[in-house]
Amino acid sequence: MPRVSIDGTEKVFEVKEGGILYDSLSDQGEELPHGCLSGSCGACRIEVVSGKENLQPAGVIESNTLESLRGEFTEKRGKDFVEGKTIRLACRAKVNGEVCFKPIK
Ligand code: FES
């Protein structure tokens, strides 16, 4: 089973391959920040610290939300905040292998 860890903590979770990141952690008692749980509000945004290749590619809904989030971050926090970062939505991202991430506040 793939292992998912939260950067800066000792938290490590074994998750079902192909499972949605948010759901997999929630099932184990780890409640991540969230809103709509359908990929449109962006509240569950995370930065993938390592293992981005182990997440299934973002679909249309997630991609659209990520695009607007990146625009918002660039505007409010500057280009450096988003450059080189892999941002995903925990409520949409499906896990295929080891991943380390941290929520973006
Ligand atoms: S909770 Fe709204 S996009 Fe994930």
Describe the fold and architecture.
This protein has 105 residues and is α+β, with helices and mostly antiparallel strands. The protein has a single domain, classed as Beta-grasp domain (Ubiquitin-like (UB roll), Roll). The protein has helices spanning 21-26, 60-77, 79-82, and strands spanning 3-6, 12-14, 45-50, 87-89, 99-103. Strands 2-1-5-3-4 form a 5-stranded mixed sheet. The mean pLDDT is 97. The site of FE2/S2 (inorganic) cluster has 13 residues, from loops.
List the ions, cofactors and other small molecules found in this model: FE2/S2 (inorganic) cluster
Instruction: Please identify the top-level CATH class.
Output: Alpha Beta
Looking at CATH, the homologous superfamily is Beta-grasp domain
Strand content: 15-25%
Helix run count: 3
Count structural domains.
1
Q: Portion of residues in helices?
A: 25-40%
Q: Strand order within the widest sheet?
A: 2-1-5-3-4
Low-confidence stretches: none
> What general form does the structure show?
globular
* Mean of pLDDT: 97
Main sheet properties: 5 strands, mixed
Distance between the termini: 28 Å
Question: SSE string, helix = H, strand = E?
Answer: EEHEHHEE
CATH fold-level name: Ubiquitin-like (UB roll)
| CATH architectural category | Roll
Work out the number of β strands: 5
Radius of gyration: 13 Å
What class do helices, strands and sheet pairing give?
A: alpha+beta
